[in-house]
Amino acid sequence: MISPVSIPFKSFIQIQRNSATPIYLQVANQFIQAIAQGKLKPGTKLLGTRALGDLLEVHRNTITAVYEELFGQGWVEIHPNKGTYVASQLPLQDLQTSSSFQYPKETGYTFKKSILLDSPFEHTNCDYILNDGSPDIRLTQFDDLSRFYSSNMKRKSNRSKMGYYNQEGSEYFKEQMLDYLQSSRALKINKNNLLISRSIEMSLFIISEILLSADDTVVVAELSYFAANMIFQKSGSKIKSIPLEDDGIDVEALERLCKKQTVRMLYLTAQQHYPTTVSLSAHKRMKILQLANQYGFIIVEDDHDYDFQFDKQPLLPLATSDQNGMLIYVGSFGKSLAPGFRTSFIIAPENLMVEMRKHLGIIDRQGDILMEQALGEMIEEGAIHRHLKKSLKVYKERRDYMAHLLEKELGDMLEFQIPNGGLAFWLKWKKPINLLKLSLQAAKNNLFIPKTLLYQQKNLQAMRIGFGNLNLEEMERSIQILKKSLLEI
């Protein structure tokens, strides 16, 4: 048997004294690796605690803790008055223990795969990036966010709440959200109608899980939000698209479809349609509610850009006129804040909320009580209103400047309407153009245009481009690159 003294322990044990991992765990983990790779054979006697401690320049008690950890995991055997030995029966005996062992690249079993959920998101190293209308986090009042969040962290009365959270969320935040939604959207609701979730997509997923079954029909506009379509299709539902007009979806086409077949759900982005930014007209809103009552389909109204209005008061949500419980209203809150402070909500009749809370309790059990408390205080003290008011001035300036640049540099190539709200433009090219080639050429010129912004059909070449995340200088450079790339394809 090999002598413990001749084992080159320092060749496979390297201690990082600045690491957050305790030294005894560092040493124990490296012992396990050495045994698994066959550097230490079963039955090998190890150095005593004092001798190994001197060799590794650590206290003897540290090595005692190492051996106890290894013994607890079954890697060593401790024989009284004899010493510590590598176990004769190893925990990984059935695995390959040579140094060539590699973690398997594929499973040994089959599983379901979904092409529906293939991520449409891309990554880039370009300095200039177009998106579909995201806010600029550089405008966030970080001092306010830090102050509210920090005060809630320090507040002793919140510590008991941190250890327990359920799907009901923060009652205080819900009360503030009710006031906010009632004042900004005229929604006559109580806390039993409100559910807080992490994102619009999570809200839609919960709705889909409860209300959709295989082969149900979900109606969307012919151009619609890709993530919502993915979620609805994942439930097994069939997507039916209807034409889009200058004032929203074609309600006559919707009525004709309802006469032919059963429609389970209609998905709308009523305030600023995604991606075209058009607003659903008042008379169409009333007609849609009438059709829902007549044919029994559910309306899901997604109002994710409601707070970004520039030139006029927005139309109130359809939810303010629904008297028969046919509509579910989803939206986002704090979109102008840093991502960690944004949240989403669902508004629906109380009996549906009971089921929704069950599902939220499974997929988001822990919640974020401190964030909700901080947001609630920001609503109550008016910080949200002040921040949004300041942001809107900047976003309106950026919208107007983007319109100026588009008209100046590309006015003869495309057509667009200046949006009344939201943070994006809908651009339609006057002549046929290969948008994918344009995207690839722009990337070579340091401008990233994600595929999700491109809408290429037989009679349509269009793009949705955001302006909210770009300052004036970045806008100028982005449009210059876009124009240059057009001339190069």
UniProtKB/TrEMBL annotation:
Record bears the keyword Mitochondrion: no
Matching Pfam families: Aminotran_1_2 (PF00155), GntR (PF00392)
Keywords associated with the record: Aminotransferase, DNA-binding, Pyridoxal phosphate, Transcription, Transcription regulation, Transferase
Enzyme class per UniProt: transferase
GO molecular function, a single term: DNA binding
HTH gntR-type domain: residues covered: 21-89
Stored PANTHER family: HTH-TYPE TRANSCRIPTIONAL REGULATORY PROTEIN GABR (PTHR46577:SF1)
Family of this protein: In the C-terminal section; belongs to the class-I pyridoxal-phosphate-dependent aminotransferase family.
Name of the protein: 2-aminoadipate transaminase
Organism this protein belongs to: Sphingobacterium mizutaii
Lineage of origin: Bacteria, Pseudomonadati, Bacteroidota, Sphingobacteriia, Sphingobacteriales
